[in-house]
Specification:
Blueprint: H1 2-10, H2 12-31, H3 41-50, H4 57-66, H5 70-73, H6 82-97, H7 99-105, H8 109-138, H9 151-179, H10 184-206, H11 211-237, E1 239-246, E2 249-251, E3 254-256, E4 260-266, H12 273-292, H13 295-305, H14 308-329, H15 332-341, E5 344-345, H16 353-388, H17 391-395, H18 398-421
Antiparallel strand pairs: 1-4, 1-5, 2-3
């Protein structure tokens, strides 16, 4: 791997992309520590610490993790990437509900540009709603943060700064995607999660009265994580290969075809998207509860944010979204039609409707174990955290570790494809 990294920096184009990506991520981390003007930070820090166990505290913790601690610092990036994620979820769902948006998804680059533009505007709208909600929350009796005079002007500055921070994060993510390496939004989430790991390790090691016990528990958790990582990578890269044969045919004066290949179908085609979608839905009531201080909604949010009910709902939602997202990624009808146009067929399966049904059956069968696996990875750490209250388990929770591994593998695959263009060995040999 070290040799591959050295080779990556030997390619000027790839080196510039990697350095550009690192520079943008460093700028993002810098923004997580720049406070919003007009907020009394010492008063806010005390209020945030005392209210962290209130209704919706789990939601606030999740949002703080995805923002890389920017929310607890109430920095210009306090809203984090969550407005963009929520906007992306809404646009994904709208493709199957609104015919016009569904047509955009099938129009190629022009349609994708329309969806991207709509996602941007929706992100800003959600960012504005979240900013106003946080402003009301931090001035509610739960927090009691008093803004300096004139309050109206200070409130406007706070809301404008938070929305501008959201727009800046979205812009940086798109810059990384276009001019850097990997998916920009995923790398921003990856950076936010990784930034919390060192402090979580320190807190875990020093949380016990006996220093030796704290260190032993920390080492045990790290050992379990080290064992779990290869299993997660194995499932992430696992494939079901459907054999495909091409009939011989004359093309001009040449005989082409007669080859055999395969269609690779990933066991976990949806990646970490189902976990992110499920987490957003689970914690959405809690987020609304903490923003607007609605008592009945707070009790409902408490019921589904943690405990056995939350674990069951989370498991079901992850499996559901795994099937939902996989059905959006793979189109058996289009795949079968492309095979027919190119003279390909699945051995032992008739072309047409039989091939479509065969591909659907295969996708449904391989999605179930992949969905159950990522659901268990996401839920089991939450169960352990409820019994131990160890911050390291929360930092290395199923959602976090799956996102980190998924983004790392995706980024390494993109770097590897660039290396192979220049005849270098990649990471996966």
């Amino acid at each position: 791997m070290l040799k591959s990294l050295v080779d990556a920096f030997k390619v000027p184009e790839l080196r510039n992309k990697i350095l550009f990506t690192l520079a943008i991520l460093a700028l993002y981390r810098l923004g997580a520590f720049i406070p919003v003007p007009g907020i009394p930070m010492s008063e806010f820090a005390q209020a945030y610490e005392s209210a962290s166990g209130a209704a919706g505290g789990a939601a606030m913790t999740l949002i703080d993790v995805f923002s890389g601690g920017a929310l607890s610092n109430f920095s210009v990036f306090a809203l984090g990437i969550m407005p963009y994620i929520t906007a992306s979820i809404i646009m994904q769902l709208m493709q199957g509900v609104i015919p016009a948006v569904g047509r955009w998804a099938k129009e190629g680059d022009a349609g994708r540009r329309k969806i991207t533009q709509a996602t941007r505007w929706l992100t800003l709208a959600l960012g504005f709603i979240n900013a106003v909600g946080y402003l009301f929350l931090f001035q509610s009796p739960s927090y009691g943060v008093v803004l300096p005079e004139p309050k109206l002007l200070t409130s406007a500055i706070v809301v404008f700064t938070l929305v501008a921070g959201t727009a800046c994060i979205m812009w940086m993510g798109e810059l990384i995607t276009q001019r850097g390496v990997g998916n920009g939004m995923s790398l921003i989430i990856f950076t936010s999660i990784v930034s919390r790991v060192p402090s979580a390790i320190f807190q875990s090691a020093t949380s016990q009265a006996d220093a030796g016990t704290g260190l032993a528990v920390t080492l045990l958790i790290l050992a379990v994580v080290a064992i779990a990582i290869p299993a997660i990578i194995f499932v992430e890269r696992a494939q079901r290969r459907i054999p495909v044969s091409y009939a011989k045919r004359m093309q001009g004066r040449k005989m082409v075809g007669g080859q055999s290949t395969y269609i690779p179908l990933k066991v976990n085609a949806a990646g970490v998207i189902p976990i992110i979608f499920a987490s957003c839905l689970i914690y959405f009531p809690a987020q609304i509860a903490v923003m607007f201080n609605v008592q009945w909604l707070s009790r409902f949010a408490d019921a589904i944010s943690y405990g056995p009910v939350s674990w069951i709902i989370n498991f079901i939602l992850i499996v559901f979204f795994a099937y939902f997202y996989t059905s959006m990624v793979f189109n058996p009808e289009e795949l079968s039609d492309n095979l027919r146009k190119n003279g390909g067929f699945v051995p032992g399966v008739r072309p047409g409707s039989a091939t479509i049904q065969y591909i659907k059956d295969v996708i449904n069968r391989i999605t179930l174990p992949g969905a159950c696996f990522i659901a268990l990875i996401a839920v089991v750490p939450s169960i352990l955290f409820s019994f131990t209250n160890n911050q390291l388990i929360q930092a290395f929770g199923g959602t976090s570790i799956l996102i980190m591994i998924g983004v790392a593998l995706d980024t390494m695959s993109k770097i590897e494809s660039q290396l192979k263009m220049y005849n270098y060995d990649g990471f996966f040999k």
